[in-house]
């Protein structure tokens, strides 16, 4: 049993490397173990990789917002760095990598879609099921995991959850080109600009609802469950290290 399973944590409380650990530890050790395994230096390295590949886009998207490159990179690293910084960036190009960031297999869920079958049966979005399952299995194969023919629920660098298809369907329904057979490719999570737009929109809403308190907004991005405080602590460590490496002012 992995540490991830032992602690019963969702993917947003996992940092780089921890998902592959086989050491069973109590939940009180999570922050310490994550620091030992990944540490702020890794986050700074992850930020350098993001900015080397997408720096102009990231800088342009945060301009005129309350957010910074450091915060955006820290949250991206928290959300998906345990996949792209540890392995995928060495296997595929940066643009190919983004499309493969389909993660989070927690099911059944208390939100829509509860599971793969409920999404397939949905009259509004069920027609997308086959394509999203294909994207989910492509991600599994890239990460060395056996395909299951079932949905994963987090999409893109910032893990936009599939539940948001009810209020932002375009993130999954917009056509982004054709595959080799001429079939349409739907979903914008493989586009750094569009994916970042959705992330900033979501975080800005949390920020306004939190009375423009950045720490509360970051915590709220993870939800309202008990793991959200760990999430905030992780992002804070990362953001401070990245801000220091970039010469930016820390927002947390």
Question: How would you describe this structure to a colleague?
Answer:
- The chain is mainly α and 252 residues long.
- It has one domain (3-246).
- The chain contains 11 helices and 5 strands.
- The protein has helices at residues 3-7, 30-37, 39-62, 69-84, 94-99, 116-120, 129-142, 170-173, 192-209, 214-221, 227-246; strands at 102-103, 154-155, 160-161, 175-178, 184-186.
- The strands form 2 sheets. It has a 3-stranded antiparallel beta sheet with strand order 1-2-3. Strands 4-5 form a two-stranded antiparallel ribbon.
- A hairpin with a 4-residue loop joins strand 2 and strand 3 (160-161).
- Helix 3 (39-62) packs across helix 9 (192-209), helix 3 crosses helix 11 and helix 9 packs across helix 10.
- The chain is globular and about 45 Å long.
- The two termini are 35 Å apart.
């Amino acid at each position: 049993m992995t540490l991830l399973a032992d602690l019963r944590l969702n993917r947003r409380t996992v940092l780089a490397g921890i998902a592959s650990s086989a050491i069973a530890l109590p939940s009180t050790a999570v922050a310490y173990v994550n620091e030992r395994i990944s540490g702020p230096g890794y986050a700074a390295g992850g930020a350098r990789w993001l900015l080397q590949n997408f720096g102009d886009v990231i800088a342009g998207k945060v301009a005129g917002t309350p957010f910074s490159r450091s915060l955006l990179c820290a949250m991206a690293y928290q959300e998906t760095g345990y996949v792209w910084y540890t392995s995928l960036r060495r296997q595929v190009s940066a643009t190919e990598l983004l499309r493969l960031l389909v993660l989070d297999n927690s099911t059944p869920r208390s939100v829509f879609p509860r599971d793969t079958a409920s999404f397939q049966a949905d009259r509004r979005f069920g027609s997308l099921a086959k394509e999203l399952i294909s994207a989910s299995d492509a991600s599994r194969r890239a990460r060395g995991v056996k395909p299951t023919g079932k949905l994963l629920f987090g999409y893109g660098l910032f893990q936009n959850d599939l539940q948001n298809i009810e209020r932002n369907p375009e993130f999954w329904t917009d056509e982004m080109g054709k595959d080799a057979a001429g079939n349409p490719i739907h979903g914008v999570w493989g586009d750094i600009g569009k994916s970042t737009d959705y992330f900033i929109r979501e975080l800005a809403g949390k920020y306004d609802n939190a009375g423009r308190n950045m720490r509360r907004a970051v915590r709220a991005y993870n939800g309202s469950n008990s793991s959200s405080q760990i999430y905030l602590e992780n992002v804070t460590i990362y953001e401070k290290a990245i801000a220091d490496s970039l010469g930016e002012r820390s927002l947390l």
